[in-house]
Amino acid sequence: MASFLQSLVDPRKNFLARLHMKSVSNRLRRYGLRYDDLYDPLYDLDIKEALNRLPREVVDARNQRLKRAMDLSMKHEYLPDNLQALQTPFRSYLQEMLALVKRERAEREALGALPLYQRTIP
């Protein structure tokens, strides 16, 4: 059952998943974003912790992409076509660190240790 569900969302196996991935890619390219830029650190504290562990240059580049995307959106414009061609929307920079943070949190919970951070509603 799990392999069937994975085949439904795998772009290499499912035409609709491939079509959706292409659509998301085009929308991200228009604003110069990467898929990992869409994660909100206020929504999930694991994401906030993963961003804190990344090198400063990576976080600064993320913030710059988000600022540029907001600026373009407010102006109702897109990146020029030559810059859109250079974008890599699915190059991940956060997934490995996020997986590490989630594994560490799960290990702490399994050992009965206190969590490093508590969920608070902002």
Automatic annotation (TrEMBL):
Keywords: Electron transport, Membrane, Mitochondrion, Mitochondrion inner membrane, Respiratory chain, Transport
Official protein name in the record: Cytochrome b-c1 complex subunit 7
Sequence similarity: Belongs to the UQCRB/QCR7 family.
Subunit-level organization: Component of the ubiquinol-cytochrome c oxidoreductase (cytochrome b-c1 complex, complex III, CIII), a multisubunit enzyme composed of 10 subunits. The complex is composed of 3 respiratory subunits cytochrome b (MT-CYB), cytochrome c1 (CYC1-1 or CYC1-2) and Rieske protein (UCR1-1 or UCR1-2), 2 core protein subunits MPPalpha1 (or MPPalpha2) and MPPB, and 5 low-molecular weight protein subunits QCR7-1 (or QCR7-2), UCRQ-1 (or UCRQ-2), QCR9, UCRY and probably QCR6-1 (or QCR6-2).
Bilayer topology: Peripheral membrane protein
Protein's cellular compartments: Mitochondrion inner membrane
GO cellular component entries: mitochondrial inner membrane; respiratory chain complex III
Job of this protein: Component of the ubiquinol-cytochrome c oxidoreductase, a multisubunit transmembrane complex that is part of the mitochondrial electron transport chain which drives oxidative phosphorylation.
SUPFAM superfamilies registered for this protein in UniProt: 14 kDa protein of cytochrome bc1 complex (Ubiquinol-cytochrome c reductase) (SSF81524)
Organism domain of life: Eukaryota
Gene3D superfamilies from the UniProt entry: Cytochrome b-c1 complex subunit 7
Residues in coiled coil: none
A GO BP entry: mitochondrial electron transport, ubiquinol to cytochrome c
Primary location group: mitochondrion
